[in-house]
Design a protein that fits this description.
The protein has 229 residues and is mainly alpha-helical. The chain is built from 10 helices and no strands. The protein has 2 domains: 56 residues, Arc Repressor Mutant, subunit A; 171 residues, Tetracycline Repressor, domain 2 (Orthogonal Bundle), CATH 1.10.357.
Length: 229
């Protein structure tokens, strides 16, 4: 590949990333049906014709957005799981939600995206592939299910259905995290102590729902916070 070709390829990728980033921002606000190319172009500060140069239809644009975000989500989740070696299952759960809490504060769009996916996968992927698309948004719940299953096998979590327990855990965590996100929007007064208190409030019902006693999960929370302070 010549220099001009390489330069053009870089420009193309940068432009597509600009469009995808704008689409993500619009999508989490309006959903698939509420998003159109005019809004995306305005968000990206690009001519609508340029959007259509890269993506012939809105569906083409969203298929690539989903592929990009699924890869981002998988990389994020896999990185968290890789860094949990040597921790017991309760510590693994706490470390996992601690990192997601921090990531959501830095970039709340990722979680908002994954919450929306199950509602729009059918429209984007059609009747044959929508279940596959929706399942790819379930990476965090699947990771939690694996940790819960390990906790049950080690006698640290009371016997239950790991998949259902993970679904409940994740639903409560996300709902509480969203409430906290709304509180901190536009605030410049949130510090690390506030974050620690908020995280404790966010996760308490998640761990209690698994039948894990307060002294155990709170000790894990304090350990994770101390390691990362």
């Amino acid at each position: 590949m010549g220099k001009n070709q390489a330069k053009n390829a870089l420009v193309r990728e940068a432009r597509k990333r600009q469009i995808l980033t704008a689409t993500l921002s619009v999508y989490v606000r309006y959903g698939y049906h509420g998003t159109d190319m005019d809004i995306v172009a305005n968000e990206a500060q690009l001519a609508k014709g340029l959007i259509y140069y890269y993506y012939k239809t809105k569906k083409d644009l969203f298929i690539e957005l989903y592929s990009w975000m699924f890869e981002e989500g998988y990389t994020f989740s896999n990185h968290l799981l890789t860094n949990e070696d040597g921790r017991n299952p309760i510590e693994q759960l706490m470390y996992y939600v601690y990192r997601i809490f921090g990531a959501n504060k830095d970039n709340p769009l990722m979680m908002q995206f994954f919450i929306r996916v199950p509602f729009d996968a059918y429209a984007i992927f059609g009747p044959e592939k929508w279940k596959e698309g929706a399942s790819k948004s379930d990476i965090h719940r699947k990771a939690l299910s694996s940790m819960i299953e390990n906790g049950i096998s080690q006698g640290m979590i009371p016997a239950t259905d790991p998949s259902r327990a993970a679904n409940s855990f994740w639903s409560v965590f996300v709902a509480n995290l969203f409430e906290y996100s709304k509180l901190i929007t536009g605030s410049n007064t949130i510090n690390q102590d506030d974050d620690s208190i908020a995280l404790k409030e966010i996760v308490q019902f998640c761990f209690q729902g698994l039948g894990i006693e307060y002294p155990l999960w709170n000790a894990c929370l304090e350990k994770v916070i101390a390691e990362n302070s």
